[in-house]
């Protein structure tokens, strides 16, 4: 058995133990003891402890079990499943790596607390993914070239999923505001949609990298590709600000969470939410259109300026819409005798 395979199997086993340990403790309502610091419970019982309604530790158990079984089977039967099987394990390990980055950013930027078990798991997912890359027989570029049709299909489906959900999320957001407030149920719906959008964005990133690396020289000179990657970067930043800063703030304000009250904060946060929603939907549609074109008749800088112009128009429109909703809200409050 080669060293890289041992690393992947061992890391998967350790990760499975960590996920099971957290699951066991939470199931029995026991305090999770951190081996460094005492803030694990603040993370493990936070609003980010579930993804798509499923506890993160359950997803961790599934993730590590798949890898442990997969790499164990590959160790015992080297020809088991062929290259498609290796590709599937590679995708799973890559998805876990990106998800661990997301969870680490949640701890760093939103919760401002750290769980050492979670950080250890993130380290293990990174180790597994790096080992998976290093163990590819034909090298990473050769592997990506061979699986390019599958990667392209994943990329297109992820883009379609992202653009569809971004549209639905904005529609639901405005629909939920018809009574000038967002209920707990509506908040959870928006949270779930947002998480699926993050999933789609993660798939776009993974598949995009897979399409880029074998043709790094060609794509590096492509205006279309450069602009599309800049837009993806905007989507990542936009999503991070919305989900890690603005949404938790809105939740704390709306549902009585612990926070330092600032006059006018709800109105300010709502304006930002509308602006970020406009950025999201314009960026998804623009990236999708760029991906559908063979080439664009503009330089990367001019194309990006056009995109920025669209953002300005979209953000301006979102603020006009927010103002109209705010005015209707004032009338609604007066009619119902609210301050």
UniProtKB/TrEMBL annotation:
Name of protein: Vitamin K epoxide reductase domain-containing protein
UniProt-listed CDD domains: VKOR_1
Topology with respect to the bilayer: Multi-pass membrane protein
GO molecular function: oxidoreductase activity; quinone binding
Main localisation: membrane
Keyword Nucleotide-binding: no
Organism: Candidatus Harrisonbacteria bacterium CG10_big_fil_rev_8_21_14_0_10_38_8
SMART domains tied to this protein: VKc
TM regions (residue ranges): 6-23, 51-72, 84-105, 117-136, 156-177, 189-213, 225-246, 272-292, 304-321
Organism domain of life: Bacteria
Cellular compartments annotated: Membrane
Record has Ubl conjugation as a keyword: no
Keywords: Disulfide bond, Membrane, Oxidoreductase, Quinone, Redox-active center, Transmembrane, Transmembrane helix
Gene Ontology CC annotations of this record: membrane
InterPro entries xrefs: VKOR, VKOR/LTO1, VKOR_sf
Family: Belongs to the VKOR family.
Boundaries of every Vitamin K epoxide reductase domain copy: 1-136
